[in-house]
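Pasting as-is:
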Amino acid sequence: MWGTSIVGFGSYDYTYGSGRSGTWMMTGFSPRKQDLTIYIMPGVKAFPALLAKLGPHRTGTSCLYLKRLADVHLSTLRKLIAEGYKVMKKTHGGAVKSSVKK
């Protein structure tokens, strides 16, 4: 769990140019009141072909917002999550921590 409402998988360390650093999940989801939020940490815009096949959705920088899972192409969603995770694993040296964050 990441906070009180985000289920995350894997983790990576980051440092901003300002020097601020932390640890965050490689992918995850949160069942919000308005939408189901899927976190694609390399950024959802990195996967335009998959987004085109997904079905109805909205996007933020690293967030994919879905009203209902029944409305989207589930195998495309699985591939989008897997591809995002693979990019994170590759760009962060494969250093995936499996510890649970509180």
